[in-house]
Fold this sequence. Notes:
Blueprint lengths: L20 H23 L9 E2 L3 E2 L6 E7 L8 E4 L2 E3 L2 H14 L4 E6 L5 H13 L5 E7 L9 E3 L1
Parallel strand pairs: 1-7, 3-6, 6-7
Antiparallel strand pairs: 2-8, 3-4, 4-5, 7-8
Helix pairs in contact: 2-3
Amino acid sequence: MPRKKHRAQPFSDEDPVFQIAPMIDVLLQILVFFMAITTIQVMRTSREMTLPVAQNGQEAKSSKDTAIINIQWRGENQPPIMDIDNISVPDAGIIENYMKEAIARMPEFRAIIRADKDTQYSFIQQIMQACAAGGCSKVVFAVMNQEEIPGSKVSEAR
């Protein structure tokens, strides 16, 4: 009598083993990556200042080829507190040198000026002249849209 051949079952009766440790490793790497990027962007801005309001601002495009110039106005009797990419700046001459170096590395470099809404225009004009003298022709201003809540996303005015 011929023997019956046993066919292998396509699926075993055991539950498949799911390796969760590699998945957790990948998720933690992704989490650390996004936290690091977010921290860098937050560090480049100052929350102590109140940005001016503009009706027609456009949402900011984050890019690594930008310098953020923060200007905190403390009144006419005191000099403003300035920094460029979290580097304290005592005068506009340092901004000019910073721009020259950045433009030499990346010709498409641009500057974002974040100034208190009370900052005098004549002072902002000096900063814009320092950017132009450094070769940076792309200067934008950080503003808030009217319908935005303070502390929410920042827009640019060109």
